[in-house]
Amino acid sequence: MLKVILSFLFSFMLLACDGYDQSETQHAVASAHPIATQAGIDILNQGGNAFDAAVAVSATLAVVEPYSSGMGGGGFWLLHSVKDQSDVMIDGREVAPQKAHRDMYLDKTGNVIPKLSINGPLSAGIPGQPAALVHINKQYGQLSLKEVLAPAIKAAQQGFKVSKHYQRMASFRLKALQASPAAAEIFLQDNELPEIGFTIKQNDLANTLTAIANQGSAGFYQGKVADALVNGTTAAGGIWTLADLAEYQIKSRQPIVGQIGRFKVTSVAPPSSGGVALLSMLNMLEARDWASLKLVDRKHLIIESMRRAYRDRAMFLGDSDFVSVPVKRLTSKSYAKQIAADINMKQATPSNELPGLDVEAKGNHTTHFSIIDKQGNRVAATLSVNYPFGSCFVPPGTGILLNDEMDDFSAKPGSPNAYGLVGAKANEIQPGKRMLSSMSPTFIESDDKLAVLGTPGGSRIITMVLHSIINVADGKSAQQVVSMPRFHHQYLPDEVQYETGSFSAEEANVLVSRGHRLKSLSSSYGNMQVVVVNKKTQQIEAASDPRGEGQAIVE
Ligand code: GLY
User: Fold this and answer.
1) What is the pTM of this model?
2) Residue 160's closest CA among 200, 203, 206, 197?
3) Domains (ranges, CATH) in the chain?
4) Average pLDDT over the chain, rounded to an integer
């Protein structure tokens, strides 16, 4: 049965995708926090569209999930507008400040200085989220900016309760939070880990959100807030200037689109590596006639495709406004056929037969939400401050927790970042450049089905989205898609990281005998948020990953 369904996916039949125009009966929001999901639903019920809800959910997540995303961070919003049947990627990724330079995280002997790109203001790129939210509201929204930011302002004023997950994240970053008095004041309790149930109120953040609600982008990138951001970062050794803030621009980009069997896959373009790597992996699976294989061979092939796509990520991907990224070639069927041809189905290809270093993956944080409204407008958005609680630095008086996305640049060719990812010249630091990302908000659509999906998870984001695409195409329910066990290979380190349940004992033996190094993870990973529409019945399903504390609402 599985084989039949998979052949369905990987058949070469190209069927046109009818746009999902409207259900007129239901809308849905799936996000990583119940308060944010409710904010999105409330905005939809007030007559807002999916884009209004996306602004409300983004801003509310910035308040209630400060370890994952924030107004001091950035992200990618993938929008589908029913009116003109168009897809657009809003790139609100952070950029390197003008005083940033290639070797800024290296010591005199050329070695990477530990933690300099992870903690404190020197690790922070110029935020893109405020500009992106203002742009989405202005270009695509129906409600006013004040209306869509109101739920976030209320959440910041009223506060939210510390959960077990919050406590775990804060404990991971305790020392760095304690190093910033303004961050410790907001996110800790008497400078220590807050108790579960303790209320985190953020009055400075409410004021900054109010300035944005009243003045638009100028409320953040100019005037009092900008002054406080620059003074606060400079006093703590940062390099931001008022010009860096005033000159920040979002980019509207063409998404990456590919056809895999019956399914049209729409995902994000550079500076995310997500769309390119996803298409590359899916094309490789298709090139090796994945559907005709036994289950264990499929898993072998998935791992080998991941290895090769992440090798290319390290070699070629960066901000396409600064470097030439061979997107067309990397996402072409002919290229996938060529690189998939050397996959040995009986033996893993050691990554050290390809250029690189042996490195180790570490912790991560980011967030994702998926929305569809009653008109069929949809948004998949993945947002980040990078590490849990970003840089852990708050410029006094702003309530803005700064990101540490500078760590997503390659500080030194071949040297791993916090996710163990290596990079090359394409992703080296340059002033004004966007750092390479793995965030992969994605739509997949066939003539009878539509899914809006994505997840946090650092370097593992792209492979989680790959699993989800396969599972949606395989006919799994939204709940099954978010719950399925996951495995991941990222070229380096040369190992298959997996959650319990990914492989049967027999499959594990076969994979090991073929040379795969299997590394069982002690904890689960990811926080997938999925909305699936059955276009024939117009029924909507939504699900929030059971590994997180999110909520999905369809109504
Ligand atoms: N900061 C995680 C990412 O953008 O991939």
Assistant:
1) 0.94
2) 200
3) 2-22+269-363+439-554 (3.60.20.40), 42-252+389-406 (no CATH)
4) 92
